[in-house]
Design brief:
alpha+beta, 2 domains, two-stranded antiparallel sheet, 6 helices
């Protein structure tokens, strides 16, 4: 009991002190103001921003969870279908087959801050038009903000949506 309830948490807290954010999470600041955390997703719905992965908990970090609905649940299927329709409405140049699963399904935590590289690519044209930018400029920004797999082996390539949107705002300046 002492090992698991006292010693182990102390070791984890001590180790967390050496991480970015000193165990409190990597805060992202703009002009001295905290605008988010690198490991927590946020809702972006304006056409001029990249949209993140949907959240089953409306991005509420206090209630981290996925949905308990499976692919045979009609409510869940309708929700995914509605998300697909919304993506197609705001990104009329893409095909339904080009939409990656992460853009229409929530993650297990409901707080995933990243989207797949393909999830960012399908949004480039919409953002370029909304911001009156060249598509190549927006595409280069996506490439600059794409993170490869851990150690080049583990996991997919991904894009942190908050960091990418902040980089977009920096272009405006």
């Amino acid at each position: 009991m002492v090992l698991l309830c006292v010693i182990y948490p102390l070791i984890v807290a001590f180790a967390g002190g050496f991480s970015k954010g000193k165990g409190g999470g990597e805060k992202i600041t703009t002009n001295g103001k905290v605008v988010g955390y690198a490991l927590l997703g946020q809702s972006f719905t304006k056409p001029e921003y990249f949209w993140g992965r949907p959240s089953a908990v409306d991005y509420n970090a206090a209630g981290s969870a996925g949905s308990n609905k499976g692919p045979s649940n009609s409510d869940y299927l309708q929700q995914v279908s509605d998300r697909i329709d919304t993506l197609l409405k705001y990104n009329p140049t893409i095909k339904k087959a080009d939409i990656p699963a992460d853009m229409v399904t929530a993650s297990g935590s409901g707080l995933d801050p990243n989207i797949s590289e393909q999830g960012a690519i399908i949004q480039i044209k919409r953002i370029a038009v909304a911001r009156q930018l060249d598509e190549k400029t927006v595409a280069e920004l996506v490439v600059k903000n794409t993170q490869g797999p851990l150690l080049g082996l583990f996991g997919p390539t991904s894009v942190n949506v908050l960091k990418l949107n902040l980089a977009l705002d920096e272009l405006k300046k």
